[in-house]
Write a structure and sequence with these properties.
Layout lengths: L4 H44 L9 H43 L9
């Protein structure tokens, strides 16, 4: 049986209330999207644009510092490797010298 006119008007009123509620939600979300967009623009401006008194942006300056640190670490690691190689060579040279003079009497005796 089809709904009565009273039931139809009640359903229409319920649907109208839902539409009004969703319109409010959409407005709230639009406001939040606008605020998020502004925050992203502020972050982009702070990171990507040159700051007063500097030629480069903050992100470029941080990248240069990071590159310098990584280069310094690589150089330090190479120096440590070289020291290890030189230490190993000195141990080998000492062992060869000791073995070559194995049967010699001590000097000064």
């Amino acid at each position: 049986m089809p709904p009565s006119p009273l039931e139809l008007s009640k359903r229409v009123a319920d649907l109208d209330a839902l539409v009004t509620q969703h319109e409010g939600t959409i407005k709230d979300l639009s406001l939040k999207v606008g605020q998020a967009t502004q925050m992203i623009e502020d972050i982009h401006s702070g990171l990507m644009k040159p700051q007063p008194g500097y030629e480069d942006s903050l992100l470029d300056r941080v990248a240069k510092v990071t590159l310098s640190v990584e280069t310094g670490n690589a150089f330090g690691n190479r120096l440590i490797w070289l020291a290890k190689v030189l230490g190993a060579l000195s141990i080998i040279a000492s062992a060869v010298y000791a073995l070559s003079h194995l049967g010699d009497p001590p000097k000064g005796v």
